[in-house]
Design goal:
globular, Alpha-Beta Plaits, about 40% helix, alpha+beta, single chain
């Protein structure tokens, strides 16, 4: 069963353009290149500047675990830490059949 992984991220609104560029040029491609990652999309909140959701679909928890141990994940975390005030909350969901 596929797992949907949502990462709720808040960044300083003054760094929103940087966050979007980093995701587009580096983070998104790194995630979609991972084994078991079916898709990755960054959602921008219309109502709250600086609020985002990283939406990814994964084949299995094992694929997520492998990704979380990878150098790509470490690089993505370093990007997030470099953004002033960036905070992230990770949640996982399964579709109901």
């Amino acid at each position: 069963m596929a797992i949907v992984r949502l990462i709720h991220v808040d960044v300083d609104p003054g760094q929103a353009a940087d966050a979007e560029r980093i995701w587009r040029e580096d983070c998104g491609p790194r995630m979609t290149g991972q084994k078991g990652c079916h898709s990755e999309q960054l959602l921008k909140c219309i109502d709250s500047p600086g609020e985002y959701i990283s939406y990814s679909e994964w084949e299995s928890q094992e694929d997520i675990d492998r990704y979380r141990e990878s150098e790509d994940h470490q690089t993505i975390q370093a990007h997030a830490r470099a953004l002033q005030g960036a905070r992230a909350v990770v949640k996982r969901y399964e579709p109901i059949d």
